[in-house]
Amino acid sequence: MEMAASARTVEEIFKDYSARRTAILRALTLDVDQFYGLCDPEKENLCLYGHPNESWEVALPAEEVPPELPEPALGINFARDGMNRKDWLSLVAVHSDSWLISVAFYLAARLNRNERKRLYIMINDLPTVFEEVTERKPVKDKPSIESGSKSQGSTKRSSDGQLKSSPKTDGVDDEDDEDEHGETLCGSCGGNYNADEFWIGCDVCERWFHGKCVKITPAKAESIKQYKCPSCSTKSGRQ
């Protein structure tokens, strides 16, 4: 848990969260048969741990009180044989999501309000473990006709590189639009939206990125029919 102890910036905590999430997902998907076998109901209270090195472990809870980090759900093995396998894995996934969030915000205790908000948005941009295990697609926010939502349609960039929005009729609407986009964070660096910079939106995951972070210029964007961010491109390549 050395990395966890030193994780203090938003980026470091998100990296820790992502690694633990990857480990949990591996246990509940790729290594599910091994994980299922380790959760013997005849054994003592067992927990599923995801570690910062992306490895997972089924083990007894920490002995020290209070523990170094929040503990995952205790006794996941007891319900294994009393439930449908798929339902049991879904239950473990839900508890794992809660644990991942609790560890992240335990490490975020010293962050300020804006940093915690940025961390949550970065975490929330990823599908939950439950969604991945049950193969449920995240429910997307419905775009508002009046707001020119950043998730509206596939055409997400204008010739000058600005976020597209509906025409405004007065100054109040302009301020509202500015506030809306002001909460947009770059999916790569986590930086705030700035109207003076070129941004591009991924047509798959619908996250926004600084053009410079994903090496896309306004001119290059004009020739792209459907933009996929590096993360979504990697996933497509694996499939």
UniProtKB/TrEMBL annotation:
CDD domains recorded: PHD_AL_plant
Bias type Polar residues, positions: 146-168
Bias type Acidic residues, positions: 172-181
Keyword Amino-acid biosynthesis: no
Record's protein name: PHD finger protein ALFIN-LIKE
Domain PHD-type: from-to ranges: 183-235
The entry's keywords: Chromatin regulator, Metal-binding, Nucleus, Transcription, Transcription regulation, Zinc, Zinc-finger
Domain remark text: The PHD-type zinc finger mediates the binding to H3K4me3.
Family, as annotated: Belongs to the Alfin family.
Domain of life: Eukaryota
Assembly mode: Interacts with H3K4me3 and to a lesser extent with H3K4me2.
Region (Disordered): 135-181
Function text: Histone-binding component that specifically recognizes H3 tails trimethylated on 'Lys-4' (H3K4me3), which mark transcription start sites of virtually all active genes.
Location relative to the cell: Nucleus
Sequence ranges of Basic and acidic residues compositional bias: 135-144
